[in-house]
Design brief:
Blueprint lengths: L5 E11 L7 E12 L4 E5 L6 H8 L7 E6 L2 E2 L5 H8 L2 E4 L13 H11 L5 H14 L16 H13 L5 E5 L7 H18 L2 E5 L3 H7 L2 E6 L2 E7 H6 L4 H7 L5 H4 L5
Parallel strand pairs: 3-8, 3-9, 6-7, 7-8
Antiparallel strand pairs: 1-2, 1-4, 4-5, 9-10
Helix pairs in contact: 3-4, 3-5, 5-6
The structure holds adenosine-5'-triphosphate (ATP) and magnesium ion (MG).
């Protein structure tokens, strides 16, 4: 077996409980899983089960209370912000609401160019050509470069957000409900785009979704979260066709209705 890109071991994350002075709540409780290079791992489970917390902690946007986060074998669980800096480029996040993830006063070209220059991935002379190439890669014509976020549709902005993440040639992208706010027709286009860029670049993805049809369409393996614990994990067909837990069975119940069986595209 190839070495995992990301190995999470016994990960526990606690937050201050807003309802109890001095109290904490455990958002993740002893979660272990691997992500292989080039793999799309789906994270499913009901609201509050810890999906976003797991995705963000994997990228060290939260510091865990316990456990290890091995990125190519190196434990980043407790690295300082300065020590994390060289790893940040390799780990990117795409959020649900593209409008709020862009600066409203920055053009799309600037939004993509800034991290490229910051990480010294290209020179000032090259940056415009690089930005246009990235826009093309995510299916946006050059005419979008000078636009501001509010001058674009949700689908176009999500393309730009994917482009901005891809520009840094990450090894791992965490996409958190990245298509949930889009219209159904646009959703299929963005899913196809994600699948295409993943195949082309070979990056790995943790794809967080409420929508099991989407998970089935896009992901190689799927992990089912429940109250901060990992309930089961396995190849998509295995988990969806032969779930081990009653909870998973209930969660996927709707997938197997006759209407849901027609075609597997979301
Ligand atoms: N920054 C935070 N401070 C305090 N509690 C938090 C914080 N972030 C998440 N939580 C709590 O941790 C638990 C897990 O939340 P999380 O956002 O990871 O769930 P989720 O599975 O992503 O849910 P959803 O599907 O609604 O996005 C919840 O009980 C939530 O209230
Ligand atoms: Mg979430």
């Amino acid at each position: 077996m190839t070495e995992p890109l990301l190995r999470i071991e016994d990960l526990t994350v606690r937050f201050r409980d807003p309802n109890r002075e001095g109290g904490t709540l455990t958002a993740l409780d002893g979660v272990s899983l691997d992500v292989a290079p080039g793999e799309i791992l789906g994270l499913v489970g009901e609201s509050g089960s810890g999906k976003t917390t797991l995705g963000k902690t994997a990228l060290r946007l939260h510091e865990p209370a316990g456990g290890r986060i091995l990125l190519r074998g190196r434990d980043i669980a407790h690295l300082s912000e300065a020590a994390l800096r060289p790893h940040r480029r390799a780990m990117q996040m795409v959020f649900q609401d593209p409008l709020s993830s862009f600066n409203p006063r920055q053009t799309i070209a600037t939004a993509i160019a800034t991290p490229l220059l910051l990480h010294r991935l290209c020179s000032k002379a090259e940056v415009r050509a690089r930005v246009l190439a990235i826009l093309e890669e995510v299916g946006l014509p050059a005419a979008f470069a000078p636009r501001f976020p509010h001058q674009m549709s949700g689908g176009q902005l999500q393309r730009a957000a994917i482009g901005r993440a891809l520009a840094l040639s990450p090894d791992l992208i965490v996409a958190d409900e990245a298509v949930s706010k889009l219209d159904v027709s646009v959703r299929a286009q963005i899913l196809n785009l994600l699948r295409a860029v993943q195949r082309r670049s070979g990056l790995a993805m943790i794809f967080i979704t409420h929508d099991l049809h989407v998970a089935r369409f896009l992901c190689h393996r799927v992990a089912v979260m429940h109250f901060g614990k990992l309930l089961e994990i396995g190849p998509v067909e295995e988990v969806f066709d032969r779930p081990r837990h009653d909870y998973t069975r209930a969660l996927i119940g709707t997938l197997h209705s006759p209407a849901a069986k027609q075609g597997n595209a979301p």
